[in-house]
Specification:
Helix content is 34%, strand content 15%. Helix 8 links the parallel strand 7 and strand 8. The chain has 15 helices and 15 strands. Helix 8 packs parallel to helix 10, helix 9 crosses helix 10 and helix 11 runs parallel beside helix 12. The protein is of the alpha/beta class. The chain is elongated, with a radius of gyration of 23 Å.
Length: 402
């Protein structure tokens, strides 16, 4: 990794300094306003605790939801401040706005080791527009900038990119550093053989990732609803399964590119079918060249699981992005769960297993196997763009290592 990190700053560079930390606290809430999953808050704790221990004045900036530059009472960070306080075992002061008199007064009254959480930065229209005047005002609260919000690093917003023009040093936090180490490392300097498991419903959402991975991987395993676009491109009938008709030629091209590069490009050999899209639908398993009319594929079959397991067992690095089927329905979660268990077993044998954000993370957590994986990415869109080889604005704006 070429970006400077918090770990490179000495304690005397941080003690007494106002440190603006961009975190990703965009957590799910239920209808009562209670946090249902605090993973992203817990992921930021190592950076926050380190700064507290070094006597910094820790100013946290975060977004929540899509308020579109307007104050939305349901999108205030009050529940987040409460949960963060519980996790840190100390009181967290939250501002009424991320800039202005209230924010300035609360920051100015901070003592070393205090933590202030700024209100939702997306309440300000200038955040998503990366407005320089807003970025300058936000940066004016601090002396040092730390970006630990990997999940927002693919956005060139005021709090992720704009503030870096007004603060120095600008470094990664520990979560950001870890994300880049695993995801960027897996692409740039992987232990071989390198395999990628790519699932999800649509080819169109994974075009960039597939094209990039074909250039990097030894094996690519395809699952999820997108397999039916590949099957139809091969001339097979797929019943009522999901197909992107305008991506048939692309599917052919991707397979041909993989073949030309000598990459094993594996599609499932059998699928679990349903007579309608519901958790209690009637189901049957069929070979991919024997899908009957009126049925739709919602999972990969047991033969496909075995095929995938055999392909993965010799791999030293595995990236997984996208489920194998509709894992939200227990009846059609077997393929996804089997792959999760396979990666868990391979992790114990020394394979580097990386879950690249999005639904894959939800699937692994639902299976109770998150702790077994080498790395679970906190950023869906950011991890996809990094795997595609794209530059993340929130990362590129940080200081390079001297």
């Amino acid at each position: 990794m070429t970006k400077s990190s918090l770990s490179r700053l000495a304690a005397d560079e941080l003690c007494g300094k106002r440190v603006l930390v961009r975190v990703d606290f965009n957590v799910p809430l239920n209808e009562e306003g209670h946090i249902t999953d605090d993973t992203r808050i817990r992921a930021a704790l190592p950076t926050i605790r380190d700064l507290i221990s070094k006597g910094s004045k820790v100013i946290l900036a975060a977004h929540f939801g899509r308020p579109k530059g307007q104050i939305n009472e349901k999108m205030r960070l009050t529940p987040v401040a409460a949960r963060l306080g519980e996790l840190l075992g100390k009181s967290i002061d939250k501002t009424d706005s991320c800039i202005g008199l209230d924010a300035e007064e609360k920051v100015n009254s901070m003592k070393n080791g205090d933590v202030v959480l700024l209100e939702n930065v997306r309440f300000i229209e200038g955040e998503e527009k990366n407005d320089p005047s807003f970025a300058k005002e936000l940066a004016g609260l601090a002396d040092v900038y730390v970006n630990d919000a990997f999940g927002a690093a693919h956005r060139a917003h005021a709090s992720t990119e704009g503030v870096t023009k007004f603060l120095s040093p600008c470094v990664t936090g520990y979560l950001m550093e870890k994300e880049l180490k695993y995801l960027q490392g897996a692409i740039d300097e992987p232990k071989k053989p390198l395999a990628a498991i790519v699932g999800g419903s649509k080819v169109s959402s994974k075009i960039g990732v597939l094209e990039s991975l074909i250039d990097k991987c030894d094996k690519i395993l395809i699952g999820g609803g997108m397999i039916f676009t590949f099957y139809k491109a091969r001339g097979l009938t797929v019943g009522n399964s999901l197909v992107e008709e305008d991506k048939l030629e692309l599917a052919k091209e991707l397979e041909e590119k993989a073949k030309a590069k000598g990459v094993d490009f594996l599609l499932p050999t059998d699928v679990v079918l349903a007579d309608n899209f519901s958790p209690d639908a009637n189901s049957q398993t069929a070979l991919v060249n024997q899908i009957p009319d009126g049925w739709m594929g919602l999972d990969i079959g047991v033969d496909s699981v075995e095929l995938f397991q055999n392909a993965l067992k010799e791999c030293q690095t595995i990236i997984w992005n996208g489920p194998m089927g509709v894992f939200e329905f227990d009846k059609f979660a077997n393929g996804t769960n089997a792959i999760a268990n396979t990666l868990s077993d391979l992790s114990e044998k020394g394979c580097c297993t990386i879950i690249g954000g999005g639904d894959s993370v939800a699937a692994v957590e639902k299976a109770g196997l998150a702790e077994k994986m080498s790395h679970i990415s906190t950023g869906g869109g950011a991890s996809l763009e990094l795997l595609e080889g794209k530059i993340l604005p929130g990362v590129s704006a940080l200081d390079d290592i001297d």
